[in-house]
Predict the structure.
Amino acid sequence: MRDLTTTSVTDAVLDQMSGTPDPRLKQVMASLVRHMHDFARDVSLTPEEWLTAIGFLTKVGQTCTPARQEFILLSDVLGLSALVNLLHDKTAVELGTESSLLGPFYQQDAPLFAMGDSIATKADGPELLLYGQVTDKAGKPLPHALVQVWQTDSKGEYDMQKYHGEQMDMRGNFRCDSEGRFHFRTVMPLGYFIPMDGPVGAMVQAQRRHGCRPAHIHFLISADGYRELVTAIYLGHDEHIDSDTVFGVSTSLVVLPRDNDPDAPVKGMPAIHYDFRLGVASGEETGRVGADPSQILSAVE
């Protein structure tokens, strides 16, 4: 038996964990312990502060429901989701369109719409047309690619916030045509505050951050043999385009609607033209830094 010190306790923990049979689990947990212990030593963490942190994380977990994922939100506002996303992109065989965050408001099994339909089945507001083409990195069309879309309404609310997961609106799936082309109608999304009524919102306020996301539209695009693309396009006129509270904006994803676009497949409304390029797949993998909240709860039950 040996008496522990503020430094030797780290080695003692790593020694006990050294028999972990899964090599990746062993690597990740050993690194986590080292970094956590270094963090505690660096800031001279007090018992009161550590209990406050435990209380905060407990509240984050208690806030999660089948329609709300507070831990994904926490990961997002700390920039960890963005970092994991960037690290994942480095593993790609080839990259197409830049990725962005899935976020905490994605839902599986959104309705399938016909080309040209509107995903705004309940919400109203100024109409907007989205159109473009899904291709490989070289520009070859990807026939019948699946395009999943979701966004806020014109008041800055997601359906999961308004209907608590009981109804869907402002989201839908589309199948591209034989040339990989798609178009659909929606309403102009509004930038919004992240949910500020929970522990993550309280943390953001304590840090004197505005807590806003610029207006955007999420896309999840897939085609057989290609790397699934998780991304979003951001409206460049939003006042928070340069200070996204979850660090999701890239220059190549910033767009502006055009009035009287001569190439738009539907006339009479502002239009955004954006083409998406998919890289080839390198095996079974996912770039989804996030998930449907109900799926996460089911996975731990």
Residues 194 and 292 are 17 Å apart (CA to CA). The two ends are 39 Å apart (CA to CA).
